[in-house]
Specification:
The protein has about 290 residues and is an alpha/beta fold. The chain is built from ten helices and 16 strands. An eight-stranded mixed β-sheet has the order 5-8-2-1-11-15-16-14, with helices on both faces. The protein has a four-stranded mixed β-sheet with strand order 6-7-10-9. Strands 3-4 form a two-stranded antiparallel ribbon.
């Protein structure tokens, strides 16, 4: 097994101190389900993708139960471009005809999902790739006629994921769902992560994004909100403090918490080992959203 805690210039005292600081969190989160949405720059950058895989394996090794939900918008767009197919977006969502859906399924299930599984399994035979179509995991409904085969989550049947977790496996889930007739739909990965976290009763739903967390001013990293309740987030949306591209990110977090997850976290996926910094250090990093004040 590859060393997942390599020596990167830290002294023995520093390394021991980090482990001591992590101990109460390791004890607290033992056997907890953690759903991690993986996407953005972290997925494209080979170095960040490798450290993400290390982090997920470490979580499993110390007794947590990670579930990975991934997107793949840039990769889908790249392949569509190579095929000479034009892409139209409505409110940030890709209009998906039958041909585009075939490309999305091929990229998400056959390429991106397999790459994540492979990166994790470098450290041991832990990861199993799934689609939302497998085992009736995600039942989808169409979002809007103008969007074609873009779906919303109608229901989640997490039995297949729970069985894998019971076997100490790491499920890696591609966000394709299907309706009752078997018609497939491409679903936003943030939406799936929130719905799945709720259905599993996850301790945490963690969204790796391309921003430091919830920013009340997208151009000012000093405007980071470290902690907030769902009610506080809704109030900030209503009064315009949260706007633009931040709204769908916080809506995904709210959905996760209201569906049953204990808390949701927005983290900067461009930071190496950001999962460990959030879960196992006193300071934490990014934004945590919960139903009530903690």
């Amino acid at each position: 097994m590859t060393d997942i805690l390599p020596d990167r210039g830290f002294s023995p005292t520093q390394r021991a101190g980090a482990l001591v600081e992590a101990l109460p969190y390791i004890q607290r989160f033992h056997d907890a389900i953690v759903v991690v949405k993986f996407g953005g720059n972290a997925m494209i950058d080979a170095g960040l993708a490798a450290t993400f895989a290390e982090d997920v394996v470490l979580l499993r090794s110390i007794g947590l139960r990670p579930v990975v939900v991934h997107g793949g918008g840039p990769q889908i767009g790249e392949l569509l471009g190579r095929l000479g197919k034009q892409t139209e977006f409505i409110d940030g969502l890709r209009v998906t005809d039958a041909e585009t859906l075939d490309v999305a399924r091929m990229v998400l299930v056959g390429k991106v999902g397999r790459e994540i599984v492979g990166a994790i399994n470098v450290h041991g035979a832990y990861a199993v790739g799934l689609s939302g179509e497998d085992g009736g995991l995600i039942t989808a409904t169409p979002r809007a006629a103008a969007l074609g085969f873009v779906g919303d989550v109608a229901s989640v049947q997490p039995g297949i994921v729970e069985r894998l977790l019971a076997e100490n496996m790491i499920p890696v889930i591609s966000t394709i769902g299907a309706d009752a007739s078997g018609q497939a739909y491409n679903i936003n990965a943030d939406t799936v992560a929130g719905a799945l976290a709720g259905a599993l009763g996850a301790e945490k739903a963690i969204y790796l994004t391309d921003v430091p967390g919830l920013l009340t001013d997208i151009d000012d990293v000093g405007s980071l909100v470290a902690r907030a309740t769902v009610a506080e987030i809704r109030a900030m949306v209503e009064d315009g403090t949260i706007s633009g591209g931040m709204i769908p990110k916080v809506e995904a977090c709210i959905n996760a918490v209201e569906s049953g997850a204990s808390s949701a976290h927005m983290l900067d996926g461009r930071i190496p080992h950001v999962l460990l910094l959030e879960l196992f250090t006193d300071a934490g990093i990014g934004t945590m959203i919960s139903k009530e004040s903690t």
